[in-house]
Amino acid sequence: MKAARFHDRHDVRIETVPEPPERPGPHQVLVRNRFCGICGTDLHEYAAGPIFIPREPHPYTGAKLPQILGHEYGGIVVAIGDEVTSVAVGDRVSIQPMVAPRDDYYGRRGLYQLSESLGIVGLTWAWGGMAEYSLVNDYNAVRLPDAVSDEQAALIEPAAVTVYAADRGGVRPGATVLVTGAGPIGQLQVLAARAAGASLIFLSDTNDNRLHKAREVLPDVVALNPKRDRVVEAIRDRTEGHVGVDVAFECVGAEAALADCIQAVRRQGAVVQVGLHVGKPAVDGFTITCKDIDLRGSWCYSTLMWPRVASMLAAGLLQAERIVTRRIRLNEVVDRGFEALLDPAGTELKILIDLQ
Length: 356
Description:
Distance between the termini: 12 Å
Largest sheet: 7 strands, mixed
């Protein structure tokens, strides 16, 4: 079968690789992949990796370079193991990509994403979504409601990131929110905040093309560009009592964006760190203390929230498909996928690979 495999930075190859075994293990599911999204994590691996992808065998999954990419995807079940009861052949599924022990400290508490042995399909697992087929554990394949489309199936994973972050921030009806970064996660964070009830949402980014797209995604979002706008002052001018927002989400992984969040949030507000920082940024601990604010990490999502997020997409509460800007074939993944997304002035947000 054809697969996009990561070998090293700027070295992703479309290769012919053996298909997964036709007869899965007792608790495994064989999936014919349908749509797969290119994630910001995939992009980081391509531009600067390997970061998460291991050169030596992963201690839990055994995966190592070269790695089939892709963890935002769905497909159709074509075979199941003898002891699988959660899905059946022919079911449409979305892949929840976390692979972790069921019986370690975090697994016994249902916090699989926090396991120190965590593996991720498409990064630290032998199979991934950027291929014709993939082999996953039964708990990774979640049956889809009929109202969720094949394209939406590939958007549940990034949408789950932002729904979880909204939970971490405690967004409630009527809340005011700042999101820094208008990339795919930032734009989904705007939608997740609105779905949670936020009434006034600010979005900051230095890319005007993405800010323009954000107004198409959510017309009443207040778009700000730090290159010309005084972000913190603009937010204070539009919030009650000029105190700032209730919750700020840092979705860039940039020191300046985190500083804006800390300054723009009101006293006893919450700052949620969603983006991954490559370096170690300076953090204004003095302001965090004096404003009595919470600074919270938000790592991925609870793996148990797939049905909840799927139902939000099915009901139209979170229209994740609005951020899709291009659909490509697998053999176009480098030129029309990774390279297009690396353009700093580009117009692309979420690119889906059509595997059929």
